[in-house]
Amino acid sequence: MATFFYARVSTLEQTLDHQADQARLAGFEIDEVIADHGVSGIQHRLLDRPQGKRLFDKLRQGDHLVVRWVDRLGRNYEDVTDVIRHFIRSGVTIHTVINKMTFDGVTNDPVQQAVRDALIGFLAATAQAQAEATKFAQRAGIDAAKGDRRKYPGRKPSFDRQATINVRNLLGKGMGTSLVAKETGLSRQAVLRIRNDPDGVERALQRWGL
Q1: What is the model's pTM?
Q2: Which residues pair with 95 in a beta bridge?
Q3: I need a labelling partner for 52 at 20 to 30 A (CA). Which of 84, 122, 145, 203 fits?
Q4: What domains sit in the chain, N to C, each tagged with a CATH number?
């Protein structure tokens, strides 16, 4: 009998060591840590992940599987429930670090089995809902960032078109940027922008209608 800790670690989540330490602090004695790195839980089933597949090969009757939460075991409701029930039928006990949930096939009482399966279904549905909400929020953030560039024209320039003409005329006469700034009442940074980034300045003027 062995206790395995499975983690799915991405660059946006906790490190593997942190997750394993949390499991140990929760009282689990881990014999082996198995982890998938940089694998999307939304896109890949557990069986399709390189290390996730190892769980199906290594877990035997009487073993214990510890995960931070049930969402580590699948990408949606169907995946999570199928995986948990598969392991339970194989005689594996599943534990979660969060809330210390335990799922096993010890009971033969149909009522208790129904309660257990209902709880598994509820948690799996919650995990999928959370994953979809996260994905939606990320997509909305990306769309908002793109949309903002179209809807919000950026920081309003401190100069208008006539000011840019005056700056370019003075620069064309060989006047230095500091003197041009003083002559036009603009900052030296604005004068440098007009001189060095004519295309960007033109786009800003057009966006603001200046």
Answers
A1: 0.60
A2: 66, 102
A3: 122
A4: 3-129 (3.40.50.1390), 161-208 (1.10.10)
